[in-house]
Write a structure and sequence with these properties.
By secondary structure, the chain is mainly alpha-helical. It has helices at 2-19, 24-39, 43-60, 66-81, 85-103, 108-123, 127-143, 150-177, 194-207, 216-232, 236-253, 256-272, 276-290, 298-314, 320-334, 341-357, 361-378, 382-403. The longest helix is centred in the middle third of the chain and has 28 residues, at 150-177. The two termini are 51 Å apart. The relative contact order is 0.04.
Length: 419
């Protein structure tokens, strides 16, 4: 790309001398240079070129000439890449409107422009309008004799918008009606069960647009979200079944990280439903996947696995605390104590909790002390530090009372308290 840029700059300079700055030949060379800059990630330079081109093309050809609109479309792409989303949206709208007048609403160029606008609207979170745009594009494609693969691409994009729409509904319901156990009850919500039906309608619409055989991963994602909606509504059995079905498709897709996300959610759901025998099977699969040292975000995923084992320990499952300790210790080995101070301290604190549950108070004190020391260095989470200090103090009291022969009846966390 560097060589191409250098060659095009030489060409632009030569054409400018020979033909003049506003000649079509020179402007064609500058268009090629702008494209090279865009493709090589030099977006600020590309933006400058496209702005110059737009002025010159407008002067030479007119504001709605196809060449001018092409430069404006390039500018929109570059602005989006720079994160200037509001400016990019304005340019995308101008291009889409002008292309509709110049080429007609059913032309491929217009469809491409509207698809770019729709994608940007989704990125900006303007899901209602994005959905409307994608549906309109599908109507246009339906009138074409040979839309090619465009229908599949737009259907997939619309499905993603609907997934995000459903997620927003669920998250809003959780925010408005969250109970202590993290489950949203219809009684907590002003609209009763309407949020659940709205979310499921969006997910159902999304999944109808996806070919499960060609896109098993995305199909599994929607099934996961549908299960999450059931879980948020307190329908734990339906949620567990949904997560299980999602896992089947994600296994076919081969994305281990995405599969782990569903397995962990399924385990949490089964724990809340007290279907403990089934939890072990799910966690065994998760543990096997986590043995892959190349897995992304492995420390965070291992930590979540340890939390699940600890919850099983709280519920009296034999061997669960041992698994939790082993998993937490493996997590510590993966963390960088200098760059992950907060996480490092948190894992030590959880190790302390497990030791307390096992009656190993001295080991708990040592773990809590590690948690406090590292959280002091982190200095960004005073609430956690206070909590860690309280648990350390309680452990010290417990040790002193046990050595004095006095029984200790401290607070015990339950599964629901560990959220």
């Amino acid at each position: 790309m560097a060589e191409a840029e250098a060659e095009y700059r030489i060409l632009v300079a030569a054409d400018t001398r020979v033909y003049g700055a506003d000649d079509k030949v020179t402007l064609g060379a500058r268009s090629a240079l702008a494209l090279v800059l865009r493709q090589s990630g030099q977006f600020a330079k590309a933006e400058r070129e496209y702005r110059v081109l737009m002025k010159k093309f407008t002067h030479v050809y007119g504001v709605e000439d196809k060449v001018t609109l092409g430069a404006r479309a390039g500018l929109a792409v570059v602005l989006r890449a720079e994160g200037k989303l509001a400016e990019a949206e304005s340019e995308y709208r101008l291009v889409a409107d002008a292309d509709t007048r110049v080429y007609g609403p059913d032309h491929q160029v217009t469809v491409h422009a509207r698809a770019g606008l729709s994608s940007l609207l989704r990125e900006r979170g303007e899901l209602v309008e994005a959905e409307q745009e994608y549906r309109a594009i599908l109507e246009v494609l339906g009138r074409m004799s040979d839309p090619g693969d465009n229908v599949i691409v737009v259907q997939r994009s619309l499905a993603v918008v609907l997934i995000e729409k459903g997620r927003q509904i669920v998250q809003s319901a959780k925010a408005d009606g969250r109970k202590g156990d993290g489950i949203v009850s219809d009684d907590d919500l002003v609209d009763g069960p309407q949020w659940f039906h709205s979310a499921m309608a969006a997910f159902t619409d999304a999944i109808s647009l996806i070919d499960a055989d060609k896109s098993p991963g995305l199909y599994g994602v929607v099934l996961h979200d549908m299960a999450a909606a059931h879980a948020a509504a307190g329908n734990l059995q339906e949620a567990a079944a949904g997560y299980g079905e999602s896992a089947q498709y994600k296994r076919r897709a081969g994305n281990k990280g995405d599969l782990l996300l569903t397995l962990q959610a399924m385990a949490d759901c089964l724990i809340k439903a007290r279907e403990l025998a089934a939890v072990w099977t799910v966690l065994d699969e998760a543990k096997e996947i986590l043995a892959d040292s190349e897995l992304n975000r492995r420390s965070i995923r291992l930590y979540h696995l340890g939390r699940s084992y600890e919850m099983l320990g709280v519920l009296g499952q034999d061997g669960a605390y041992d698994q939790a300790l082993a998993t937490y210790q493996e997590t510590l080995e993966l963390l960088d104590v200098e760059t992950d101070l907060g996480s490092y301290a948190t894992v030590w604190h959880d190790i302390g909790d497990v030791y307390i549950a096992r009656g190993r108070v001295k080991d708990a004190i040592a773990a809590y002390q590690q948690a406090v020391d590292h959280m002091r260095r982190y200095s960004h989470d005073d609430d956690s530090l206070r909590s860690f200090l309280i648990d350390l103090g309680r452990a010290l009291v417990q040790l002193g009372e046990s050595e004095d022969g006095v029984s200790y009846d401290g607070d015990r966390k339950t599964v629901d308290d560990r959220d």
